Amino acid sequence: MSYSGKSVKRLYDDKFVTGRSTYVDDLKINALYAAFVRSNYAHAVIKRVHKEDALKMSGVVTVYTGEELNRVIKEGIGPWTTYIDPRPWKIPKWRFAQGEVKYAGEPVAVVLATDKYRARDAAEAITVDYEPVDAVVSMEEAKKDKVLVHKELGTNYGYKNDFVAGNPEKALESADHRKKVEIGNRRLIPSPMEPRGIVASYDGSNLSVWYSTQIPHFARAEFSRIFGIPQSRIRVVMPDVGGGFGSKAHIIPEELAVIASSMMLGKPVRWTATRTEEMMATNSRHNVFRGEIGFNNDGTLVAINGTLEVELGAYLTYTEGIQPTIIPLMIPGPYRVRDLKIESRAIYTNTIPITMYRGASRPEATFIIERLMSTVADELKLDDVTVRERNLVREDQMPYTNPFGLKYDTGDYLTLLREGVKILEYNSMKEWARKEREKGKRVGVGLAYYLEICGFGPWEYAETRVTEDGGVIVAIGGTPHGQGTETAIAQLVADELQVPIERVKVIWGDSDAIPAGTGTYGSRTVSIAGSAAVTASRQVLEKMRRVAARAMKADVEEIEYKNGEFVHKREGKKMRWEEVSRLGYSGKEPGLSASVTLEGDVTFPYGIHMAIVEVDEYGMARVKEYRAYDDIGRVINPALAEGQIHGGGTQAVGQALYELAVINENGQLAVTYADYYVPTAVESPKFKSYFAEKYHPSPYLTKTKGVGEAALIVGPAVIVRALEDATGGKFDFTPVIPEEILKKMK
Amino acid sequence: MKVEPDQKVRINVKVNGVLHEAEVEPRKLLVDFLRDDLGLTGTKVGCDTTTCGACTILLDGRSVKSCTLLAVQAHGREITTIEGLSSDSKLSPVQEAFKDNFALQCGFCTAGMIVQATFLLSQKKDMTEEEIRDSIHGNICRCTGYQNIVNAIMDASRRMKA
Ligand code: FES
Ligand code: FES
Known about the structure:
The structure holds 2 protein chains of 2 kinds. Chain A has 3 domains: 17-133 and 194-242 and 248-281, Aldehyde Oxidoreductase, domain 3 (Alpha-Beta Complex); 362-452 and 603-745, Aldehyde Oxidoreductase, domain 4 (2-Layer Sandwich), CATH 3.30.365; 456-599, Aldehyde oxidase/xanthine dehydrogenase, molybdopterin binding domain (Aldehyde Oxidoreductase, domain 4, 2-Layer Sandwich). Helix content of chain A is 30%, strand content 26%. Chain A has a 7-stranded mixed sheet with strand order 3-5-1-12-9-10-11. In chain A, strands 7, 8, 13, 14, 15, 16 and 30 form a 7-stranded mixed sheet that branches. In chain A, strands 19-27-28-29 form a 4-stranded mixed sheet, sandwiched between helices. In chain A, helix 15 (485-497) packs parallel to helix 16. Chain A is globular, with a radius of gyration of 27 Å. By secondary structure, chain B is an alpha+beta fold. Chain B folds into 2 domains: 9-84, Ubiquitin-like (UB roll) (Roll), CATH 3.10.20.30; 93-161, [2Fe-2S]-binding domain (DNA polymerase, domain 1), CATH 1.10.150.120. Chain B has 5 helices and 5 strands. Chain B has helices spanning 30-37, 93-100, 110-123, 129-135, 147-161; strands at 9-15, 18-24, 56-59, 62-65, 78-80. The longest helix of chain B has 15 residues, at 147-161. Chain B is elongated and about 50 Å long. In chain B, 54% of the residues are buried. One FE2/S2 (inorganic) cluster binds at residues 45-47, 50-55, 65, 67 of chain B.
């Protein structure tokens, strides 16, 4: 019996297909509703908040501003110190707005009312007197440090650090060719389908929070720090979560206001973001790389020297500090270039704060390095495959330490490239597109390569418990929210324990039920939570062998376990799984469970993806097909892994072609959900996804690497390259919107 | 009919076969009536611009976005929500097909997608892939990339013919 490697059906789909799922807004809890009054100004002094009219309205309980809320919100929102070293950063204190607003959309007051219609009515009845002050809403302006977002910091630069390896100046000088480059991603909006939401209930001693989050345990720790309540008295529950993509791993002031209100009123309080609010809760990407590269006649890239600028928005969110520190490290990608200087900068502006988004740093780095590879190809009139062949790290260099010290674990990049070109039919499709273009069609084919860093530690928690009736409960610190990793983990555990998968139940996301955890992000869950679950399962099995040995009056070594039976090797006596389970709960030392906190470190999957793009006469581009060939280590559930390629690939279509969070000159978000183009079924491509059969394992017990972000990491570079093939233009910024395509077409 | 501010209106609506008599504020959205008043939270709200389709229900057998109708507009009519598509013991062919084809990830769009697919298949049994894509373009899914959803709908159509 083996489940791993098979496309086992997802364990818990019934509730979703029948409408019995429970997202945070579906919880039937009698609570007050919160609604927010928000600033229209990007930067202003708050003179007065007129609450009177609102307070007179029926159903309105109270209105709070920063003055009241910040008495309870003691500490500010800070960076995720597990992954971000705060020391080189300049960090403004970020609580609920008090005295001053720093971005358009920032909440200024919260209304608490008996239903959401009344709460929203009352929020509209509140007027605020502002005194606008100079705002700086573009990164280019902010760099001048003329207008400051936070006076107390003395600069708009939140972070400055130079990443240097080798001698890029010298390498540039001795290169056959030099070329200036400018590459970047513009601001987008992650847009999970479920807007974020929270219910907080403070009962006088304990705080319970139901929260649409990817990181319930970190949230508990942050709430503890911010509100000064011990973690043991806080319970954070993650109900069903309707997508996160990295955007549900940070805390916003609205959520703190809900908790603070519940504490002050002693009543449950809830808030679910409207889509418009969700669009203001999380913006992502926006980074520019400007610099120069050096390369030789044979196509080898020998030097990269430039500046990376990452926009922060008005405050440093929990997750955005990751980008300026990880992007530089991953710019060399799978290639041998060793002389680099990346001056990394992060810049505050009076705009919606920016957070990580699926891929977090690796899409940005991959877009830069893949655009550089394509630039070299174009300059030398070489094809994309040849240039990559000449630059990829060789198998005999593995494990390879990249110029910034990252250790690439396993892989054969060149073989995968060559296999991929065949499997994806790159050459024949290129030829087909060329012929189509001769007939007057605008179609193109493009590819790009990626190396991903994922499977982040530092650790993950898992417990395996065998119940009295022989069931298995696996409690994980990972927090699946759509990926289906609970099913993959059940497969691993069922194999490890040699029991039918129907017996295995996987639970997560409740800080009272799961003592510790980090969460699901960075394509880590199967590798690290899965390996933790397998380890815990092994330990439980050991315990069961001891129970069986005691019962059969044998030494543990004499007991062999196989397919649900504990066999006394010498005497041939047997005990069934169920018998041992029951016995495990009697006598001294009752209970059959084992918990582990498994430490782990990063691993590096890689792959090659290809797209076919067609452009119409109006400059409207469509990705017709998207093909992927990846070495993600061992594949536990191929259908789930493919699903990640489809979903990430579709987000890549959005990032490459459609999704642009326009900020107008007043710093206001100038798009609604109706004109922010998340791809629909019409704009999304047909997918073909293949995984390397001869995979290269990670050091994790599961041998898996990770696949959750792959297609969004490489997809934008792939699609932009295909678009160039189709139009003959050159595009270095995402999204490439129709106006820009049209210009290059003529 | 003229209604004063704060005055409620009496409506009769049959939802999933059960008749409900209720008093609602005239401005109450149908989706809020279903979710907050009747507790039928299977129908979701994903946007405020009639864009996403998470709130799709059947009104007298036709698919509509329940965030874009008032509860009073449902007076005297029949509604089917995701909860009404299956009896507890048996899933509908569309529901089965969604499970079997990995047509959901986070599940938030799923109710709307299944209701929309159920409506489509009640209108036309044989649809090409392109037709299916066109007919679900008012339902946004951020997770699946749609291919498995399209496959599920084609699969459901085969099951319904069998
Ligand atoms: S909630 Fe009705 S269309 Fe989005
Ligand atoms: S499954 Fe998540 S939005 Fe469709």
